[in-house]
Structure prediction request, 377 residues.
Amino acid sequence: MLTTSTFLPTSATIDLTALVHNLSQFRNRLVPGCDVMTVIKANAYGHGAVETAKALIRQGVSRVAVVSIEEGITLRQAGINAPIVILGPLFPEQFTDLFSHQLTPVVSDAAILPKLGQAASSFQTPYPIHLKVDTGMGRLGFTQEEVAQLFGSKTFPRTLHLEGLMTHLADADGADPDATQKQLTQFRHVIGLVTANGFRVPLIHAANSGGAIRFPEAQFSLVRPGIMLYGYHTLPKSVPVPDLKPVLSLRTSIAQLRTVQPGQKVSYNGTFTATQATRIAVLPIGYADGISRHLSNRGHVLIHGQRAPIAGLVCMDMIMVDVTKIAGAAIGDEAVLIGSQGADRITADDIANWTGTIAYEVLCTIGPRIPRHYHSS
Prediction:
């Protein structure tokens, strides 16, 4: 067990003040009466689901969303009593865990609905669920025809309470808004089908972070912010976004320094060859911790407020960086992979640009063996 005196050369710091700031900025862009269900799946996008959930709930967030039963159980076992919505697919074998931990499922498959209704028959009151409609994502969800059949035939199980009706926007951050507008038109039609059959659904939601900001008409009664809580977005530059602050920083320490001579190679397969006497710093962090191999010979870290390029292939547990131009670099010095040092900053967006991905993936892949430290400034 780690103690408070345990030295940890590599760690991630989670700024809860920045998290609260981002939530406030996001809320300021919502129409009156629209609530938030914060998305903390994938270990809160790498930030730590339990502590993130607790911080958000302290700010009045009434419910959170994860993707799996397992993620929901983790939150319950940590003492989180707020409603937890399970966004991912549901299997009959999970009904017992679902019920025992009082998790709210999103039902996206017409075949499982009667099975869930039968399993919920032992409860004194109908069990709450959300129903997902596929309006263009091509992933999970009832088709419009399945919705019409379900409610037109009056076969919605009486043992279930339709607490929520939802869809997922496939292109809210795309260049052309037409696809999203078509999805919203179809979703409104589905809402009409449901309400025309006597159902009054308290929670109607379609928008993720980008969708809620770019399409205010998609806010309905609930929105599902995710990435913006953590300080990032993927919206086009033409769309004004809230003032966001990155929440996570990632740091390690120089473990060893060595000088390689001209012609000498560094790391596997010799993809880096020194052209002059080169000072190499070894950092104890690698792709097992979420540092993509696509950063090999491409990414940078900050040491003494200066950018040190990654030299050679990223290893499972280590990377090497060129500190030839950084005077005074020494063993034990801090190296920043995400965050600020001096007057410079490296963000998850920067890493995403270097590796051809998005900030979501950069954050989510930060490995579990990196300890998270939480603070409020």
In short: The longest strand covers residues 334-341. The chain has a mean pLDDT of 96.
